[in-house]
Amino acid sequence: MPKDEPPPPAAMRKGSLARFLGLDGGGGGNAFGDLGAMHEDLFRIRGDLAQIRADLDHVRSAVGRRDVTALDELIQTGNRRDIEATIRDRSQTVPLPDGSVLCRILGRYKFHVDAADTGMAPHLLLDGYWQYWVTEFIARNLARGEQVVEIGAQYGYFSVVMADLIGPGGRLLALEPNPWLHWLCGRNLAINGSSPPATLQRAAAGFRAEAATKLRARITGPFHGPFATWFEYGEGGATVQAPSMALDELEQGPVDLIKINTGTNAELIWLGAQALLDRSPDVRVLLHFQADACHDPQGFVAAMASRFPLRIVDTDSRARPVTEEALLGELRDCTIFLAQGEAR
Questions:
Q1: CATH 3.40.50.150 domain span(s) along the chain
Q2: Which of 32, 53, 149, 232 is the most buried (most CB within 10 A)?
Q3: How far, in whole angstroms, is CA 220 from its chain's centroid?
Q4: Cα gap 122→155, rounded to integer Å
């Protein structure tokens, strides 16, 4: 046998398990009729299982576990089920004393999340990804050197992904008003070597610049943490003050992609980005649309349709056309894709 070739697994050998189940064709009656023989076979089965584990360890050491070298490479190498299995296989978690948990996402990025978060964090901790269909869509449609703006970065999941995809020649501006999430997002960008080109600001996007805007805060971090005094707590939950800026004021030149993660303020963000859209003819917009969170959902959808063909990112990570009626009906919570050109 060649030196580099692992030995055949014990499961390939005809052993006690086959005899125990009466599958070896050797006759001899029912193995369950002899209690002593059954105990002996069980003992041998345990030995075979131990050998199988040893053989698998040998194969892993000889072949090695799959390394994820780049997100676009990962997505191009197999179907979704295989990719998700690869990502889950590389998931790890380490609780930290500051109230966060360090984990690995998408098979390669180190990432901090809030230990008490019951929304996004469980998906990242156990699966290693969030909204995979959107993640794959971005990886397919974002190129090196492009200019990106992200609103509502939260932990920075998409910020880290997009900063990696655009590379050093690109530019990413990310806004996150929550001070605890803003701090975690900054850590995640820094630990993955994404800064520069990423610029992170603690601010919200809106219709116009305001010195302070009160926002709901679902995640506040530990009560004894350094950001605890930044939040106000009442019967309706926690709130936080943050400056607000219009996208027209933030970006003076054209951009290639705008990602809006918050559905609760999307109408005002849209109104404050009209000049930016005017000077960005090739822009693509990914917007989390929540009809129930809009003041005038019908007017908002009509405003988007007046500028762009309406499409959504479906669960197969492909953009497909959608009607205004569908967005106001069965698709009231979805990711809208707006662009003059076609998506890849």
A1: 131-338
A2: 149
A3: 20
A4: 13
| H helix and E strand count, the chain | 13, 15
Give the least confident one: 40-44, 125-129, 131-135, 147-151: 40-44
| DSSP 8-state code for residue 9 | P
Tell me the percentage of the chain whose pLDDT exceeds 90: 67
pLDDT (0 to 100) of residue 31: 47
Whether the CB-CB separation of 171 and 218 falls below 8 Å is answered with no
C-alpha 157/C-alpha 1 separation (Å) is: 47
Q: Which tokens sit at 248? A: 């027209």
pLDDT in tens, 80-130: 888 898 899 999 999 999 999 999 999 999 999 999 999 999 999 999 999
What amino acid is encoded at 283 in this protein? V
- pLDDT: is 242 or 249 the higher one? 242
Model pTM?
0.79
- Block residue for tokens 């990886």: 139
Query: How far is residue 66's CA from residue 83's CA, in Å, rounded to a whole number?
Result: 11
List, as one string, the DSSP characters of 117-136.
-SSSHHHHHHTS-SSHHHHH
Q: How far apart are alpha carbons 142 and 344 in whole angstroms?
A: 10
